[in-house]
Amino acid sequence: MPDIESLLKEKRIFKPDSQFTRKANWNKKVAAEYRKLGEKNPQLFWAKMAKEHVSWFTPWKKVLDWKPPYAKWFVGAKTNVSYNCLDRHLEGDDAWRRNKAAIIWEGEPGDSRVITYAELHREVCRFANVLKARGVKKGDRVVLYMPMIPEAAVAMLACTRIGAPHSIVFGGFSAEALRDRVVDAGAKLVVTSDGGFRKGEPFALKRQVDAAVDGVAAVECVVVVRRTGQDVEMRSGRDCWWHEEMATASTKCPPAKLDAEHPLFILYTSGTTGKPKGVLHTTGGYLTHITTTCKAIFDLQETDVYWCTADVGWITGHSYVVYGPLACGATAFMYEGVPTHPGPDRWWQLIAKWGVTILYTAPTAIRTFIRLGDEHPRRHDLSSLRLLGSVGEPINPEAWMWYHRVIGRKRCPIVDTWWQTETGGIMITPLPSSVPTKPGSATLPFPGIQAAILSEEGEEVEPPNGGLLAITHPWPGMLRGIWGDEQRYRDTYWSKWTNTYFPGDGAHRDKQGYFWIMGRVDDVMNISGHRIGTMEVESALVSHNSVAEAAVVGRPDEITGTAIVAFVTPTGDTESSDALTSVLKTHVTAEIGAIARPAEIRFTNSLPKTRSGKIMRRLLRNIASGDELAGDTSTLEDFSVLASLRESDEG
Ligand code: WTA
User: How far apart are CA 254 and CA 93, in angstroms?
Assistant: First the structure.
């Protein structure tokens, strides 16, 4: 198969600010030293990081035991995640952190809580004792199905304290999706709430749990947090209230001394087809990976108010809302609701109100704000911000520029971080102190991470062409398997090449060795024998000032084999028209070449997305070719989008 062609020419470059660099956790010199060490000897690098950022009860005998495709990191060592996130901030030289805010939380209705490290420790110990009293033992699985409330973090940490792996199911999933996951994980206990708030309305969670666990014998207990006050049915003998259990639970619960490879959590990712995959992560390596990346990439410091906008139901919520920042002793901000409630400026209001210094969010949110107009962020004082991050999808260069200009006010470095549920932590990213950034590029592998662009056959692809992104050396945060399905683990990630991890993304490198992620390999379009990634064509469209968001897919074409169909969401005040269609086609041709010229442009107010905000191109492919919708749609955020996209067909 030929390589993927790269068409996008992005020339802008932003150097690190010298003032930022001077105060950074990793200054230029340290960053260069670590990069060198990571290249030469990744094991030595990670061992050094493990000593520096993680507290261990027992040291390791061996840094890495690699029997492909299975890795063990820090063999023989013992630690505990909740100990690292809590206890160690209350002891010895660090005891001053007792009364530091660990979590600042605001609910959608505007209620708020500030929870100190000492208080969080007490709550976590209490809930760990509740779990024990309800029969949960080391190794038992606990499912969390909760809104973005502090109790979600308490429950996660309580599980880690006693060594019960958790599996968080995003609160927007249906009862059916929840049931599949509860059954697959073999969960003994479920933690939920009566409901949560979204767009000003309470939604129900407990009711979904009732439907999901009905007849599932393994589930012995359901613990329910009261959040909205709505009516719920409590089944006697199975269900209990969080506040009642907590009222009598002891605040003392020693952390279990767990093996570095003890299972920490299972997190289901929706594969494109069929059964969800339970991605398994373990303790010591994961903790090393996320603490090191938090310190180096977000430059987390004592005075920061750090806000990662992800839901705890996603990997970003695990690694960079809860575990990473708390293990670093930072102050993490958490928000319950949607970005646009009660008004389109809620986020900017929150940043100004709480003095948020670091914002980590997703391109889908950024593109939504672009569409809503600059006046909303412009109205608020965002001067507390000092660093911005992006994750989840390729960020189109023009969206990057908007983030830089309108949110960062041209002062804040942007870290575009590439990683996956499977990688546990960030893999390819700028270091804000030392790596010049280019809009649209995730830049370089993090020190200690080894990545390459390979062909199907495993040959290194020569720049400027693109190919398949590959991770060529094991890393500490890597998944340790698919829960209950060893074969699927081997087939999905390790069968393309020998001993090399296949993430499923296309990418290319430029002359400076920077990585540019070009989208999922499954979405690559073959136009007259040229293989073209989705990201570059979408970026060309988004670079036109009347386009807020775009998704491109291929549909079968008699002449070219495949023709490009573009689904386009115009910016706020733009009317779609035939004139705009031809302007956009010409624009793409001018930006990246005639080969990428869309055969068809369809305007739409919204694109079908997963609940974590990724565009579902698979569904758009079906719509573009007039096929029936195939495969799993359970992760789709809004079904009405599909109906309206089908209507746009007639237009
Ligand atoms: C995509 C989210 C380009 C990519 C942490 C990856 C990105 C998938 C980026 C994983 C980025 C994530 N640039 N693409 N900075 N970050 N992706 O498992 O396709 O929800 O394989 O993990 O998102 O998504 P997941």
Answer: 20
pLDDT by residue (tens digit) across 376-415?
999 999 999 999 999 999 999 999 999 999 999 999 999 9
Which atom of ligand 1 is found nearest the CA of 314?
20
Residue 390 located in a structural domain? yes
Pocket test for ligand 1, best of 297, 415, 419 (most atoms within 8 A of CB): 419
Helix (H) or strand (E) holding 306: strand 305-308
Residue 632: per-residue pLDDT: 59
Whether 476 is covered by a domain: the verdict is no
pLDDT in tens, 56-70: 999 999 999 999 999
- Which of 440, 546, 363, 506 is closest to 11 using CA atoms? 440
Q: How far is residue 391's CA from residue 385's CA, in Å, rounded to a whole number?
A: 18
Q: Is the CB of 392 under 6 A from ligand 1?
A: yes
Mean pLDDT of the chain: 94
Chain mean position to CA 107: 21
Residue 649 confidence (pLDDT)? 44
Domain that holds residue 337: 8-446+487-500
Residue to substitute in 505, 538, 539 for testing ligand 1 pocket (most ligand atoms within 8 angstroms of CB): 505
> DSSP label at 116?
E
CATH number at residue 558: 3.30.300.30
Give me the number of domains the chain comprises: 2
d(CA 493, CA 501): 6
Closest by CA to 168, choosing from 363, 417, 421, 475, is: 421
For the ranges 149-158, 365-374, 458-467, the maximum mean pLDDT occurs at 149-158
Domain end position, chosen among 437, 467, 500 = 500
**Rounded Cα gap, residues 44 and 582, in angstroms:** 56
Among 166-170, 430-434, 618-622, name the one with the lowest average pLDDT: 618-622
**Residue 27 · residue 431 · CB < 8 Å:** no
Residue 517 Cβ contacting ligand 1 at under 6 Å: yes
The bridge status of strand 277-282 relative to strand 305-308 is unpaired
Question: Whose CA is closest to 43, among 81, 69, 74?
Answer: 74
Same domain, 66 and 206: yes
